[in-house]
Amino acid sequence: MTEASICTIGDEILIGQVVDTNSAGIAKELGKAGIMVREMVSVGDEHQAICDTLNSALAKSDIVIVTGGLGPTKDDVTKKVIYELSGSTGYVTDSRQLDIIHRILASRGLDVLGRNRQQASVPDGCRVIPNRLGTAPVMAVTFPEERYGHKAALYSLPGVPFEALGAMDDVISDIRSSFSLSEIRHKTIMTYGIAESALAERISGWESALPPCVRLAYLPDPLKGVALRMSVYGNADNADEIFARETAGLRAILGDAIYAEEEKTLQQVTGELLKTSGKTVSTAESCTGGMIASLIASVPGASEYFKGSVVSYAVEVKENVLGVPESIVSGYGVVSAECVAAMAEGVRRLTGTDFSVATSGIAGPGGGTEEAPVGTVWVGVSSGNRTETMKFSFRNDRIRNMERFAASALDALRKFIISEINYCK
Amino acid sequence: MTEASICTIGDEILIGQVVDTNSAGIAKELGKAGIMVREMVSVGDEHQAICDTLNSALAKSDIVIVTGGLGPTKDDVTKKVIYELSGSTGYVTDSRQLDIIHRILASRGLDVLGRNRQQASVPDGCRVIPNRLGTAPVMAVTFPEERYGHKAALYSLPGVPFEALGAMDDVISDIRSSFSLSEIRHKTIMTYGIAESALAERISGWESALPPCVRLAYLPDPLKGVALRMSVYGNADNADEIFARETAGLRAILGDAIYAEEEKTLQQVTGELLKTSGKTVSTAESCTGGMIASLIASVPGASEYFKGSVVSYAVEVKENVLGVPESIVSGYGVVSAECVAAMAEGVRRLTGTDFSVATSGIAGPGGGTEEAPVGTVWVGVSSGNRTETMKFSFRNDRIRNMERFAASALDALRKFIISEINYCK
């Protein structure tokens, strides 16, 4: 199996000011193409460290992908290392990339500066894959077997994440032209509402009966729940059959805790339910502060089913805009079943939607009572037929609590929409 | 200078399904304590790969921090590797960690399962630092000089990010007890509204006049703008003086594009302005879908100044809830100066706040016209005195466009509040 190392370069990564998201994105693309990532390494902007890291990666792996160190304000240390590794004797300007640089800067109404033009200049020992999305091109170097004991290829990508990922299709085509790639097949089952260790207990019988060619991974995420990923390595002709059988087995155990049988988010699945049933939704948010709304809106095409929201952070907005009766606020408090029910009904009336979801809780770090400690959220879901409320408890920091509140509300909305659609059939 | 390597373990990282945020968080804490991170490495859940990686890291660095591979559903491969590296002869149960496990599970109303109890069992050749936030403890191993040619220490942290970071204070205390740490001083200046390459041109004279002991990094982030980080390595007694002088130099060039002289977010700074002036704010959002509201709400104590929002995704919500006149919608369209002005004024009236901010734009990928292509956003800011509107253009994917729209709106709000407060003085 063709193996790859991913190297990211930048002092900003080593001091922790920037989280490296490039490596994960690149790894996903490599995995889809059947290339197995064996390690990821991040080093600083130092010539020797980069040299050592790339040489060591090329000795271990067939493919080495490098990102970072190529921005207009960087020292171009990476480019110098590639100059040396490729045995270059000078720099040449790639006219295709220079055209792109002129076009991009013109579209932003900017002049082409010396440091922009410099980005089209590359070591003459490497091949250029033009970067249509940005100013720094991809540089590729192929090494003969005698250099590292096996055929090896190095690809240097721009550091801007959306440019680095945008270049991966071209990079993988280039890899295919000189390596024969085998297969990795993945099947991901998305679950929500069962904690990782409880989930492991629930499915332990199923898990231990998995065929030996299948590897299982638990992938928890605050906004997505726990994804269960089955992987079949090598050329498994019957992978589809295995996946179908094992997915059915999981369904029988987990029921509607499974919200998708592929990598999807709760907001995508909820959006699809609304779209196919021709229904609309709105949100009324207190402690989640608009996060549910922005998750719903982040899905392309959301305007077909998402009408709008009221973030009622202050009591008077709950009362004056959403019409929550003062008697509920004074009688039950704002973190109560009664309040989220009134909020959900209020926003549905106000925006004229078929469904709505509402939240009120205590994200912390301050606030909270004995009855509703930090981490408590009430969720209300409403339709023309009925309104349901439920309480969830978490124990995290403020932002993580807001995320768990928002995801739990989306999951409650998803289940409510399914039950209402089935009821109306 | 004491150097560290950070190793993260997990197939889920290598296949790109999980972004490693632990390394960045750990690196920040190490940097504050004067420990320089020289590399970060991620490897899969394979015994040999973990062994090789840890041995190689211990040979290079004084301190090695490992995370991952310790969750209740993991194979505990890391623990086995630590067993071998530490020359252990058996496992012992750490009673302090077992107590914590019982307490945590009881507080969630859960039974202590075998796999939970197993987490308090550790190789007898390592020291335990209890993890108060979760069930898996920190394991520490100190190696004498003869093992790797220098004194070395290994710390194995739980994989859950908030537990790993929560353990860092105790880990650093432990490191201090056996290593004498030198200093790295950082000063971060937050800027918004100037692209990285334009910023580099603007401050190139200032940058080339920096004293040689200062290193400068450009750290772009879609929600925070470009952070400029100056670093002084070693025991620089005059670091504060240098930072003060250079910051004043930057202020003279960049003016109000600087929004903070420490690591802060636009929503924190805007919140502080509101809090100290005793003013309140609301938002009216179309294309940002509630993201500005949730950013404002993510700051602890936001309820002091944040009243609420209306997400008016549909035209009828703009008209019926925010009171945008139909004549504006039909005459100018919803992506217009007139519309965001009416939205900002509408939400301010509705929620009774001193300030408000509104957005309407095209996040893409679909939609857009010649006048307002994908990536265009109109922002409106309003107070009792006046309403201002402005247009911004970006060229990204949907979610990144929403983030840039939200950050630009927050920055516009920040500048507007400052000018209004100064005007009223």
What does this 3D model show about the protein?
The structure is a homodimer of 425-residue chains. Chain A is an alpha/beta fold and 425 residues long. Chain A folds into three domains: 3-176, 3-Layer(aba) Sandwich (Molybdenum Cofactor Biosythetic Enzyme, Chain A), CATH 3.40.980.10; 184-260, Alpha-Beta Plaits (2-Layer Sandwich), CATH 3.30.70; 266-424, Alpha-Beta Complex (Maf protein), CATH 3.90.950. Chain A has 18 helices and 17 strands. In chain A, strands 2-1-3-8-7-6 form a six-stranded mixed beta sheet, with helices on both faces. In chain A, a hairpin with a 3-residue loop joins strand 10 (214-221) and strand 11. The longest helix of chain A has 27 residues, at 398-424. At the A-B interface, helix 1, helix 2, strand 2, helix 10 and strand 10 of A face helix 1, helix 2, strand 2, helix 10 and strand 10 of B.
Name the descriptors.
alpha/beta; 18 helices; 425 residues; 6-stranded mixed beta sheet; homodimer; Maf protein; Molybdenum Cofactor Biosythetic Enzyme, Chain A; Alpha-Beta Plaits; 5-stranded mixed beta sheet
Chart the SSEs and their pairings.
The structure is a homodimer of 425-residue chains.
Chain A: E1 3-9, H1 11-14, H2 22-32, E2 36-43, H3 47-60, E3 63-67, H4 77-85, E4 91-93, H5 95-107, H6 114-117, E5 121-123, E6 127-129, E7 138-143, H7 145-148, E8 152-157, H8 161-166, H9 168-176, E9 184-191, H10 196-202, H11 204-208, E10 214-221, E11 225-233, H12 239-254, E12 258-260, H13 266-277, E13 281-285, H14 291-297, E14 306-312, H15 315-320, H16 326-332, H17 337-351, E15 355-361, E16 376-382, E17 387-393, H18 398-424
Parallel strand pairs in A: 1-2, 1-3, 3-8, 13-14, 13-15
Antiparallel strand pairs in A: 4-5, 6-7, 7-8, 9-11, 9-12, 10-11, 15-16, 16-17
